[in-house]
Each structure stands twice: as structure tokens, then as C-alpha cells.
């Protein structure tokens, strides 16, 4: 039996680029996240997966995210990963623990003025405040 070798017509680099350029939507019951908040604007800039964020060293955090705060949270629903951050899908619930800061662990998020129904920008996604309890801000994407 003789095997026939057929070389690729499309360069491998092109296949890799096409495969890596699409974001993949994921569904989860619960994913640990880090909510990145700009200290100066007191606004959410992006959301990252806890596992990938945990790999960064303190110096990398300070260089990449000068003037930012990082809060622990949980995402329930759909999301896509684009570049290094998460874009929540529609009707996804995000719980931000305003009293659990990732680094440095000594400050809190000022969310006392947020009430149920208020809109909040999560970087590239808008969300509504569902509840604002002691140390827990619950959001739902639109």
C-alpha cells in the first residue's frame, strides 16, 4: 500500500492566524474573575479570569496596571475571551466582592451610591445593578 503525500495549499501560518483570531464563547455555571477598576476614575475598565491574572507577579501588575484596583468576583453565564480580558454575554450575572481586593488587599470599592436598576459600564459591556449588599455588588449584563 502506498501513501500519497499532498502538501498544504494554504501556509500553516495563515491557518494559525485564522484559528487564533476568533473569540470563543464559553458558558459556565461559575468562573472566578478579577474586576479591574481605574482608581482615578473609579470605573471598571475590564474583567479578567482569576487563573490567568493570578500568574502575574506584583511588579508586572504595577507596570501593566498603574493606578488600578483589583477585586475578586464570580461570573455566571456566557462570556468570550478577547485578547486578555473577558466580555460577558447577555444576561450574564457578575458578582463583584467590593470588600475582597486582590492586590493590594487594603482598599474597598466605593459602591454605596449604586442602587438596583443603576447602569454600570464594565469596560465594553453595560450592566444593571441587581443588588448592592454589604461587600457584594451583583450586576446583570444587558
Overview of the structural elements:
- The chain has one domain.
- The protein has helices at 12-21, 50-54, 58-64; strands at 25-38, 43-49, 68-82, 85-88, 93-103, 119-121, 126-133, 136-141.
- The protein is built from 3 helices and 8 strands; from the N terminus they run H-E-E-H-H-E-E-E-E-E-E.
- Helices cover 15% and strands 48% of the residues.
- It is globular and about 35 Å long.
How does the helix and strand content classify structurally?
Answer: alpha+beta
* Overall shape: globular
Approximate strand percentage:
over 45%
Radius of gyration (Å) = 19 Å
Secondary-structure element order, N to C: HEEHHEEEEEE
Q: What is the straight-line distance between the termini?
A: 59 Å
- Largest sheet at a glance? 8 strands, antiparallel
Give the helix tally. 3
Strand element count:
8
Overall residue-averaged pLDDT value: 76
Short structural summary:
The protein contains three helices and eight strands, in the order H-E-E-H-H-E-E-E-E-E-E.
List the topology elements.
Elements: H1 12-21, E1 25-38, E2 43-49, H2 50-54, H3 58-64, E3 68-82, E4 85-88, E5 93-103, E6 119-121, E7 126-133, E8 136-141
Antiparallel strand pairs: 1-2, 1-3, 3-4, 3-5, 5-8, 6-7, 7-8
Amino acid at each position: 500500500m502506498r501513501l500519497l503525500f499532498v502538501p498544504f495549499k494554504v501556509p500553516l501560518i495563515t491557518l494559525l492566524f485564522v484559528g487564533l483570531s476568533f473569540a470563543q464563547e464559553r458558558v459556565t455555571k461559575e468562573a472566578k474573575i478579577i474586576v479591574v477598576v481605574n482608581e482615578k476614575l473609579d470605573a471598571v475598565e475590564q474583567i479578567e479570569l482569576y487563573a490567568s491574572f493570578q500568574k502575574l507577579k506584583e511588579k508586572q501588575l504595577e507596570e501593566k496596571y498603574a493606578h488600578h484596583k483589583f477585586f475578586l468576583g464570580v461570573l455566571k453565564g456566557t462570556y468570550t475571551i478577547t485578547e486578555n480580558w473577558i466580555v460577558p454575554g447577555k444576561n450574564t450575572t457578575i458578582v463583584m466582592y467590593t470588600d475582597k481586593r486582590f492586590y493590594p488587599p487594603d482598599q474597598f470599592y466605593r459602591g454605596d451610591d449604586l442602587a438596583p436598576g443603576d447602569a454600570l459600564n464594565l469596560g465594553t459591556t453595560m450592566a444593571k445593578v441587581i443588588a448592592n449588599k454589604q461587600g457584594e455588588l451583583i450586576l446583570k449584563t444587558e
